[in-house]
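Two folds, back to back.
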Amino acid sequence: MSHRGSLLCLPSGIYGWDVRAGDAVSAAALERVFAEAGEIDQLLLGTGRGLDFPSEALRFACRDVAIGLEAMSTGAAIRTYNILLGEGRRVAAALIATE
């Protein structure tokens, strides 16, 4: 399986995500994630090649639905997602494309 562009990896499947930069991630951009909050304990936010810290509003929005938020480069987020998923953890990923 192959995907291009930014992605949301959720318990219900993998979806294209129309976000191209870390500073464009908002609660509205994560609406699909929040709709599945009951099945997600941790959200890994891959912010591209570098690290962009999520806004305070985004951190509070995740906290309000009991989802832990971890930001890191997209490569690190993919590796971490695969490990946690393999352990059977309730994890999701929002991955900004690096190209």
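---
second:
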Amino acid sequence: MSAGHAAAQAQRTAEVIGTVHGRPVRRDRLDRRLAALRNGPGAAALPVAGSGEGRQLVRWTAHVLFTEELCAGLARRAGVDTGAAPPPLDALGAVQLGSVNAAAWRSHPAVGALFTAFAGAVARRPAPVAPAVRRWRLAVAEGATPQAAAGARPASIGWTTLADLPLALADAARPLAPGEHSAPVYAAGTWHVVHAVEVADAPLTAPGPDRPDPTVLVAFARRLDLERARSVRPAPGFEHPGDPAQPDNTHRH
């Protein structure tokens, strides 16, 4: 049996998709979430169930559930109030946070609440002295594979500095002139193609009160990575989509 067939069988037969803080995450939760995706407005863009990309979608969705459960547990332990609405997450913030974390932010209040508590405890970096910085107006296309990202419709993330992007995306954007786009690049658990719309030098302004600080978003994403490594144990077939050991991962060094 090939590794891909073994992964498919594991995904079909597992009753528990993994544990978070030692507590099992049941398969029926994943089935409900996948059904909602496949019956939702973006269903036409989803990969075929049972294909390699389809198995990656199953893994990605499982890790969204793991992240929700992880943040809910951390919020309970820290006594964080999850009742208040978190700051809205725009397209740039979603890129900075990573696709799994961004999806969990939008689907479970504990993620944004934990971020708000985290942000209050993190010292902000002082504003740069330079009067102006190079800024890019970018659009980013995402996909589970390089081919999917190359064929996806790019979504605008607005104006940003390269310092506010994940390192791989910043490196991809740096040489681009307006109208150009990068080759597919892997970052934050998925593939991206970066499209440069406009480049300009402009004063650097602090983020407004209606959006999260990008520096803190990146730090929060790293914190979640550490917490996942400590507390999340995926079952076979439900490894992280970017795990190089699983057979459907197309990201190879």
